[in-house]
Amino acid sequence: MTERKGYAGNGLVHVKNPHLDSMDEDVLYHFNLGTKTHNLPVMFGDVKFVCVGGSPNRMKAFAQLMHKELGLEGDGKDLKDICAGTDRYSMYKAGPVLSISHGMGVPSISIMLHELIKLLHHAKCRDVTIIRIGTSGGLGIDPGTVVITDIAVDSFFKAQFEQVILDNIVVRSTELDKDLVEELLNCSKEIHDFPTLIGHTMCTYDFYEGQGRLDGALCSFSNEKKLEYLKKAHDAGVRNIEMESTVFAAICGLCGLKAAVVCVALLNRLEGDQIKAPHEVLVEYQQRPQHLISIFIKKRLGLYNQMELLCIFPE
Predict the structure, then answer these.
(1) Is 311's pLDDT higher than 70?
(2) What sign does the CA torsion over 101, 29, 34, 9 have?
C-alpha cells in the first residue's frame, strides 16, 4: 500500500486524520501543550519557518542566532523553552521562526512531527517551511561539507519509508521539495569557502550496525564488507548518512509541508568510523547549517544584507 502526498491549496497545514475534528480537546502530550490549556493561534499563528534538529542545546543556539539576525527586541539569551514542562523535547520561538529538538532516530522525530504538525494546524499557520538541520556521516566527501538532501533513501537505497500501521506496511514517498533544494543551494553560494552539494541522504535505524560501523558493541561483518556496502551506497548517489530523513520527508510530504534536510558531514565514512576532529572544529562544522538557514530565512523575509555576511564569513 502506497500513500501519496497531500496539499492544502490555501497554504494551511494539512492534517490527514478525520478523528481530530470530533475531539473536544487535543493534548500535545510530549510538548506539554494543548488546545484547551493554551491559545495556540496566539502563541504560534505567525510561524512561517520551523527548524528541527536532534540536540536541545543546538536548537536553542539556533533560536538565539535567529533572534539576533532578525533584530528582535530583548536578549536572545533569555529565550524560554516553551516545552519546559516536559523533558522530551525543547522548543524556542524567535519571531516567525520555531526551533525544536527532535532527539535521535526515527521513533523520536516521528513523535515530535505528529505533535508539531497538529500544533501548526491548530494554530492555523499558513505557508510554513520546515527544515531539519543537523550532523551526519559523509560518504566520499570532505568533513565540513554541507549536504542538501534531494531524496532521502532507506538502507536499500530506495526512496521510500515503510510505516507499520496495525498489521500493514504502508510505503510512503521520501522526495523533498526540489525548488526549496535549489533555493538553499543558491543561498550557500553567497558564503565564501562554504562547501555545499546536493545529494541523496541515507536514513538508518541506528548509529552502529545499521551504518556499517566496526566500532560498536556488536559487529558481524568485515571491513571489506563494510566498504563494499558504503561504496555501493555512494554509487547509488548517497552522500551522507543519518537517522531521521526518511520519516521526516514522508510525514512532511503527506501533510503538504515544503520541507528540506540540511546536514553537515562530520567525517568521511569511507575513511573511518569514529569522529576524531577537535571539539572547536566540530562546533564550527555544526554551525554551518544554522548559518545557511539563517541566510535563507532572512532572504525570504527581505532582511538579507550581504555586507553583514562578510563580517561572519570574511574572505
Answers:
(1) no
(2) positive
Strands 238-242 and 196-203: parallel
Residues near 280 by Cβ (< 8 Å), separated by ≥ 6?
none
Rounded CA separation 151/176 (Å): 6
Say if CB 53 and CB 134 are below 8 A apart.
yes
| Residue 63 near residue 99, CB atoms below 8 Å | yes
User: Which one has a higher pLDDT value, 236 or 14?
Assistant: 236
8 Å CB contact between 256 and 7: yes
Residue range 231-250: mean pLDDT, rounded: 98
160 marked among binding-site residues: no
CA distances (Å), origin 74, targets 62, 128, 203, 303? 16, 25, 39, 19
Is pLDDT at 241 greater than 70 in this prediction? yes
Q: What is the mean pLDDT of the chain?
A: 94
Check whether 211 is labelled as a binding-site residue: yes
pLDDT tens-digit map of 142-188: 999 999 999 999 999 999 999 999 999 999 999 999 999 999 999 99
Residue 88, annotated as binding a ligand:
yes
What pLDDT, on the 0 to 100 scale, is given for residue 75? 84
Burial (Cβ within 10 Å: 0-12, 13-18, ≥19) of residue 232:
exposed
Question: 137, 80 in Cβ contact below 8 A?
Answer: no
Instruction: Report the Cα–Cα distance between both ends of the chain, in Å, rounded.
Output: 52
Rounded to two decimals, the pTM is 0.93
Residue type, 108: S
Name residue, grid cell 492555523: 124
| CA distance linking residue 237 with residue 110, whole number of Å | 25
Mean pLDDT of 57-65: 96
Using a CB cutoff of 8 Å and minimum separation of 24, what contacts does 33-38 make?
33/82, 33/83, 33/115, 33/119, 35/122
